[in-house]
Amino acid sequence: xxxxxxxxxxxxxxxxxxxxxxxxxxxxxxxxxxxxxxxxxxxxxxxxxxxxxxxxxxxxxxxxxxxxxxxxxxxxxxxxxxxxxxxxxxxxxxxxxxxxxxxxxxxxxxxxxxxxxxxxxxxxxxxxxxxxxxxxxxxxxxxxxxxxxxxxxxxxxxxxxxxxxxxxxxxxxxxxxxxxxxxxxxxxxxxxxxxxxxxxxxxxxxxxxxxxxxxxxxxxxxxxxxxxxxxxxxxxxxxxxxxxxxxxxxxxxxxxxxxxxxxxxxxxxxxxxxxxxxxxxxxxxxxxxxxxxxxxxxxxxxxxxxxxxxxxxxxxxxxxxxxxxxxxxxxxxxxxxxxxxxxxxxxxxxxxxxxxxxxxxxxxxxxxxxxxxxxxxxxxxxxxxxxxxxxxxxxxxxxxxxxxxxxxxxxxxxxxxxxxxxxxxxxxxxxxxxxxx
Length: 437
Known about the structure:
Layout (H helix, E strand, L loop, with lengths): L5 H16 L2 H5 L4 H23 L9 H33 L8 H26 L7 E4 L3 E3 L6 H8 L1 H22 L1 H10 L5 H32 L8 H4 L6 E4 L1 H4 L3 H25 L3 H18 L13 H5 L100 H5 L5
Parallel strand pairs: 1-3
Antiparallel strand pairs: 1-2
Helix pairs in contact: 1-3, 1-12, 3-4, 3-5, 3-12, 4-5, 4-7, 4-9, 7-9, 9-12
């Protein structure tokens, strides 16, 4: 991974940015501040690393000093922001699992949001400010890496900068363990809360718990390993004074790849700091990129884009599609034909096609049915669509059904005098005595 071509990291960094930004709109609807902050910090960090890997792919020239000033501060903040967002998620999951009431007032919800913002946004900003105390010079530029923050390796730096991810990871572990205990003790209240909360299902809850758990399990060992690398990769200098640390502060160190790749601890430290951001983005997408709400929004986005470019969306069926769309496709499908075969048989009464259809509407006699010639193109006779029937009345009033097409049926009563009769040559007395049936 660390010896791969530069374009490999650039591609994965951009994909990590997309993996975090695409699901962001529908996660904002759930008001889960920790998850949204996690996506913003991780996506922004991946975008910065992607731009740096493109601009400084084979040079150490200071092309954009202002960009480096801003991006290095964001990189310092993101190293603390991602563990802080994981702490926000674990803290929220703990409060859900240990909830004593299924309802919250607006003031309580507002207080929860402000607390999450203070953790997921306030702590990273505070870290950016504290890092300036041990910032030895303006920034570094590593070939193939780009802009990189410069932190003077002194014992004070471990307190102000390097120890924050480890401390946040320990707090996340505490909330994670308490959440598991509360779930085991208050399962009934937990399910009651989930049923009352339309923005949080059990599936989303356990996916959030899996994401926060993985972040917690990775943050603690990685935080310890980063501290170990910083103590072994270079010498730890004693803190003397503010003036000594910030002497010649405006200088910019430009390091070609042939030099910084000569030290294996330096290579490991620099490469880990950027590849871990990409891993965080893909871990998040693995939990939330294939969920039901994600697939639904992907489908809606595809339909919207397809309509704009003129593509057919007839094959795209949503779960809430109408029955008329399923019955007939105006572009590619054909109208189904239902043929009713009438045979000549004896019966005492006419069996209705449905319990909702009145026999009197069809004006059919209870006599012997006669065979009616049928045309293959006659689709209206003998078939009815369910969509043509009126909806169920709300007020209990009788809604008249549509009249069925008139069928060629014999009259209910047959007038004997209207039927032509052939009279045989027989005596008059015999002819008048014949009963015609």
